[in-house]
Design brief:
The structure holds two protein chains of two kinds. Chain A is mainly alpha-helical. The two termini of chain A are 38 Å apart. A two-stranded antiparallel ribbon of chain A has the order 1-2. Chain A has a domain of 38 residues. The longest helix of chain A is centred in the N-terminal third of the chain and has 16 residues. Helices cover 40% and strands 13% of the residues of chain B. Chain B has 16 helices and eleven strands. Chain B has an eight-stranded mixed beta sheet, sandwiched between helices. Chain B has a three-stranded mixed beta sheet with strand order 1-3-2. By secondary structure, chain B is of the alpha/beta class. The chains are: A mainly alpha, B alpha/beta. At the A-B interface, helix 1 and helix 2 of A face helix 10, helix 11, helix 12, helix 13 and helix 14 of B.
Chain lengths: 93, 484
């Protein structure tokens, strides 16, 4: 893992990394990846990946409206709204 | 007057020896007295708690009494509470007022509980010491130089210190059991899907599970009865029938076959080993058969967890972008800058670290090597547990490799911090239920006994725990709050 990779990952994650901290972050991530690499001790060629701890059935509800529009309530958490919209910096010229 | 258990409080309220207002005031006084030293609460709801207590008392007079009428509770600040600040321990949500209640909150409120406040926690539940909270460290009531564990550190510390008789928590890799162990109380993480995750701010969705902290196993059962069950708002919640856990754990004890994984004892420090051996002896004397078993891949649980949890968190936390709610950076000129600055200012170091690890593990070219590999390890670990449960009813071990560590001791060493969850993470990966109950003191600091069950075997876990607590007294220990 090099500094370039760290900066690329940070950009994908939309997190700013201070240039002076990049090396410290790199060291910590490498330590974590070394710990993670211990998984390679186990041969898993014939093992299925498991994404869910139980073989639960996915229940589907009837397609009926259960919640009313509460936009005004939700927007109380945000000062940057106008006419029901969220305000953001200009995206298209 | 000194109240310890929910069972005692419930009895006193039902027999009208005690009003809801009296018991609420009693705990609010304790919070006032100790919270500045322990920092267990982010928000204290004094007026709201007293108003609700008054309503409950009026209801009781009318003869309307519910299962948990008048019982005070502290809620982890990860659960959304309508009209109340819900911070998740983060600057990102410092001013977030939730527009709705989590299902767990709704159920407990409807059962008659009194919410005393919202408890401190590691930021977004990422941490094992409660040091990553934006709202300051929580101190261990047994010794304030030590951590209470995490991420549900505030919920554990407030019960241990007697500021609340019970609290809620969440457990993704040990965040209920590890702090329960380090503060000398009971903490149960039910089977994945047993309790609804609706309104519980997501960290790693395939591992997260809500649970509770109390002083006794009986009290855990009382609360689990109320919060368990299928919820149409959480598609991963289970519709497996919910037994009456309280009745089940009070039934006459039948000795069980207990597995003791040798990997849980490898390299265990002598004094911890001695405390654990004493607990095992007590169980043997009760007629339980102890069988040595092997969970050889469980030691890789931390490695697999450090891929699965960050990967899921990097995805879940992408919703915090500064646009609709949460922290929003000022003076930005582009949308990209708005995202980056809001996230970089709003998240703390540990959260950023995990988002980066997760993003890396999911990025093109690394997905198979990390994420798929971790999911395969997860399957191997689950298979080992399945095979173990063919032979034994329950599995035991120490909850944590050691008692509490000092504040600051592991903060700059993420690996050391992650390894404090070595005995707890594999049950999350396998979705199994487990409890931590106090089993002794090492240098005046508590340490817990972990009891792991098969899927939906909470009753067996609670029954053994209750039995242990009838013949031992560790659960009655309390730190001396006067000498803090």
């Amino acid at each position: 893992m090099d500094k370039k990779t760290i900066l690329k990952i940070a950009n994908l994650a939309k997190i700013e990394i201070d240039d002076s901290k990049a090396n410290e972050i790199k060291t910590n991530l490498e330590k974590i990846l070394n710990l993670v690499d211990e998984m390679n001790q186990v041969d898993t060629d014939n093992i299925e990946p498991m994404s869910h701890p139980l073989n639960l059935k996915q229940y589907l509800r009837d397609d009926e409206v259960t919640e009313n529009n509460k936009r005004d309530l939700f927007q109380e958490n945000n000062k940057n709204t106008a006419d029901g919209y969220y305000k953001v910096p200009k995206i298209i010229d | 007057m000194e109240y310890k258990t929910l069972t005692e409080i419930k009895e006193a309220i039902h027999s009208k020896k005690l009003s809801s207002c009296e018991i609420t005031k009693y705990y609010l006084e304790k919070i006032k007295k100790y919270n500045n030293k322990i920092n267990a609460f982010i928000t204290i709801l004094e007026n709201q708690a007293l108003d609700k207590a008054k309503k409950i008392d009026d209801e009781i007079v009318k003869g309307n009494i519910k299962n948990l009428s008048g019982i005070p509770i502290a809620q982890k600040d990860i659960f959304c509470t309508k009209g109340i600040k819900t911070t998740c321990g983060s600057k990102m949500l410092e001013n977030f007022i939730s527009p709705y209640d989590a299902t767990v909150i709704e159920k407990l409120e409807n059962a008659g509980t009194i919410m005393l406040g919202k408890t401190n926690m590691d930021e977004f539940a990422m941490g094992s010491s409660n040091e990553t909270s934006h709202f300051g460290d929580v101190k261990n009531p047994w010794n304030t130089n030590y951590v209470p564990g995490g991420s549900s550190g505030g919920s554990a510390a407030c019960v241990a210190a007697g500021m609340s008789p019970c609290s809620t928590g969440t457990d993704t890799g040990g965040s209920i059991r590890q702090p329960a162990s380090l503060t000398g109380i009971c903490g149960i993480k039910p089977t994945y899907g047993r309790v609804s995750r609706y309104g519980m701010i997501a960290f790693a969705s395939s591992l997260d599970q809500a649970g509770v902290f109390t002083r006794t196993a009986e009290d855990c059962a009382m609360l689990l009865n109320e919060i368990s069950g299928y919820d149409s708002k959480d598609s991963t919640s289970s519709n497996e029938p919910v037994p009456n856990y309280l009745e089940e754990c009070r039934k006459k004890f039948k000795p069980v076959k207990i597995g003791l994984p040798k990997e849980f004892l490898d390299g265990l420090e002598d004094s911890v080993r001695k405390i654990f051996d004493d607990a095992v002896l007590i169980l043997e004397k009760s007629g339980c058969r102890i069988k040595e078993i092997s969970l050889k891949t469980s030691k890789l649980g931390v490695s697999a967890y450090q891929v699965v949890a960050p990967a899921e968190c990097s995805s879940n936390l992408s919703r915090f972008d500064g646009v609709r709610f949460g922290h929003r950076a000022k003076d930005v000129s582009t949308i990209d800058e708005l995202y980056k600055k809001s996230r970089s200012e709003g998240f703390g170091n540990e959260v950023k670290r995990r988002i980066l690890v997760g993003t890396y593990a999911l990025s093109a070219g690394y997905y198979d090597a990390y994420y798929i590999k971790a999911q395969k390890i997860r399957n191997v670990i689950s298979q080992e547990f399945r095979e173990a449960f063919d032979e034994v009813d329950l599995i035991i071990g120490p909850t944590t490799p050691d008692s509490a560590f000092k504040i600051g001791e592991k903060l700059d060493d993420p690996i050391a911090m992650y390894l404090s969850d070595v005995f707890t993470v594999s049950t999350n990966l396998a979705g199994l239920p487990a409890i931590s109950i106090p089993m002794g003191l090492k240098n005046e600091l508590p340490i817990g006994l972990q009891i792991i069950g098969n899927h939906f075997d909470e009753s067996k876990i609670l029954s053994l725990s209750h039995h242990y607590q009838q013949i031992t007294d560790w659960h009655s220990m309390m730190p001396n709050m006067e000498t803090l």
